[in-house]
Amino acid sequence: MFTIVDEAVLLLVIVCAIGALSIKDLVGAGILFGAYSFMMCMLWAVMGAVDVAFTEASVGAGVSTVLLIAAVFRTTRKTRD
Amino acid sequence: MRILGLLSCALLGALLIAIAADFPEWGDAHSPASEHLSPYFIEHTMEDTSVPNIVTSVLADYRGYDTMFETIVVFCAGIACFFLLGSYACAEPEERFYRSVETGVVLRFTGDARPRPDSPCFERIDPRWTPRDIIISMVGRIMVPFIQIYALYVVAHGHHSPGGGFQGGVILGAAFILLALSSNLRTMTRCIDHKVLGVLSALGVMIYAGVGVTCMVMGSNFLDYAALHTILGVSPVAARSLGILFVEVGVAMTVMATMVVIYNNVASAGRYEEGL
After folding, report:
1. pTM
2. Helix, coil or strand: residue B89
3. Does residue B96 contact residue B109 with C-beta atoms inside 8 Å?
4. Backbone angles phi, psi at B109, to 5 degrees
5. Residue B100 backbone dihedrals phi, psi, to 5 degrees
6. Are B204 and B75 in contact (CB under 8 A)?
7. What residues of B are in the A interface, CB distance below 8 Å?
8. Tens digit of pLDDT for each residue in B84-114?
């Protein structure tokens, strides 16, 4: 069932996760985290868990990205470490 | 310290991957999880609850007790955010900025001074003002009603298609957050006050628990919706389907209000006045 497209998406998930951890710009990290959630949503949909994919798309990629960016707006944009 | 952190991260990651190799294969029909309970749900959901989407019936009927406490967790998250960040003591910021619509001159007010509230000449602006982009505000205004209709569809149609209270509630909350993002926080607060949001988030939990208590009053177990059939005037099977709809509406109300409350508190540092 795991075709080459799924493996490419899985690779992108890992790249997004490492990117979100290592990037200095916190807004960028939030957006990368949203991209990570969207890739995970695609993986859930491929595996047939449509309800989980729907939740991931609305909560993970939608609202939590906005909440992260709102939190960055109230603190500092650059991370110190 | 950094090396220690990396080392523990790598060690725990290796442990996790080693354990994940022990999991049953994807779609394995003989794994313990799909040998005992899953066949019951797959075979009996239709005749027990008349709900085609098995996930919804497991979530809100067979495992309704879990979902009730998930809703309470969401409600508690909103309450915690409100108590940590909300500040009624300084509801009005010390200095406020008003911009003359015609000339673009910005006036700074301190203390109690302000222009007349109904004055068409001045608009309230945030300290970090960005020019109003007509495309963003118009697209946001056009999109919001459609997103809300879609959210209501997701809530009401959770029996037949993916979705339900949680997803629909989040989409409904996201519509209000989009309104706040595309214009400003005060526009959203004018549409839905933060006190209304607090009441809605508590009311959702109360609807869920109330349906359960009503089942108990009718002489059945907590959240056994079949007991509602005498009130609703339908067969016990259809009553379970309708009971799922009631609790989904409660979940959607709590989740929607909590999402907007968290956004309000985070974006405006608890003042509901100036924010993203």
Report:
1. 0.86
2. coil
3. yes
4. -110, 140
5. -70, 125
6. yes
7. 26-27, 53, 55-56, 162-164, 166-167, 170-171, 173-174, 177, 181, 259, 262-263, 266-267, 269, 275-276
8. 887 765 556 677 788 777 777 888 877 777 7
Listed by start position, the domains of chain A span 24-76
Alpha carbon distance B42, A53 (integer Å): 20
pLDDT tens digits, A43-72: 999 888 899 999 999 999 989 999 998 888
- Mutation choice for A interface testing from B148, B259, B265, B271 by most A CBs within 10 A: B259
Contacts of residue B266, Cβ cutoff 8 Å, sequence gap at least 6: A67, A70, A71, A74, B81, B85
Q: Which residues does chain B have within 8 Å of residue A59's beta carbon, measured at their own beta carbons?
A: 166-167, 170
| Chain B interface test: which of A55, A63, A72 (most B C-beta within 10 Å) | A63
d(CA B11, CA B6): 9
The partner residue sitting opposite A58, judged by closest CB among B26, B55, B170, is B170
The rounded mean pLDDT for chain A is 88
Burial degree of B264 (CB within 10 A; 0-12, 13-18, 19+): buried
- Three-state SS at B256: helix
**Contact of A74 with B269, CB cutoff 8 Å:** yes
